[in-house]
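This section describes the prediction task in plain terms. A model, or a person checking by hand, is given the sequence of a single protein chain and must write out its three-dimensional structure as a string of tokens. No templates, partner chains or ligands are provided. The sample shown here is typical of the held-out split.
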Amino acid sequence: MDLLDDYLADVRARGAVFCSTVSAPPWGLRFTEPAPLALAAILRGEAWLVPAEGKPVGLRQGSVALIRTQWPYTVSDRPDSPPRVLVDGDDRCTLTDAPAEPGSLWSVVGRTVGDTTDAGSDLLVTAAYRGGGALCEPLLDALPQTAVVRPDPSLASLLDLIAAEVERDEPGQQVVLDRFLDLLLVRVLRAWFAGAESTPPPGYRALADPHIGHVLRRLHEDPARPWTVASLAGEAGMSRTTFARRFSALVGRPPLAYLTDWRMALAADQLRVQGATVQSVARDVGYADPFAFSAAFKRVRGVSPTSHRDGALR
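The expected answer:
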């Protein structure tokens, strides 16, 4: 396991929406209740992403945008095109009464918008990623409202597979596309965080260091182990002082502070499970004393474990 594995452990695409223009634009999709993280890939043609705040962003064929916002946004053929389709929080598509240009044919069949067989049309696929809980927070916090990965050779073959699947009409299509989009999310995140303009989650770039990367993987594999700076330095094959300095420089925080934050994120998600108790969760994340665990949880998360659990299950 590594950081990205854990961040995305419970994040899954669900109900991908496919849109193509047929004959004449305009076309537009309005996402009225965005998921915590969404993706829009331009498989053919061009599109514009129009956020609630900020300037419209142009997307050409092969571009993929990650969208992280709680406000409605639109994807359309032009920035000023009125939305013809509304997509709600359950990924249901409904037509608006926006006027259509002559020759612009639209239909809503399940989650598919438009006729995807016209080779001359624009072809867009979007996916909403729900779940993730507290484990996903560092990843979401590291992303801007809109992160656009321009056409990249490492994504081209996967986008071709997605386009080919969209244009089929075979059993299991939705499941296949959702799985493809799970894979696309990982590839796009890698491409985005590899860019000089990005700020990856704490520890992400440290994975490339043979010593600190190994320690990070061990922490994520076995967070409940009674780790000390000395035992972690032993895993790294370094002296305590050298290890602590290098870990802090690469990860952005001291090793035990990083471990505590990760344990509290794990605990926050475990407390949301029906029947979980503070004592059992404390034990699972490495605390024999539930009082010490409660104090650490409140210090890191801002509320007591009991309040967090009761609020989640209410």
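For orientation: Residues 3 and 15 are 26 Å apart (CA to CA).
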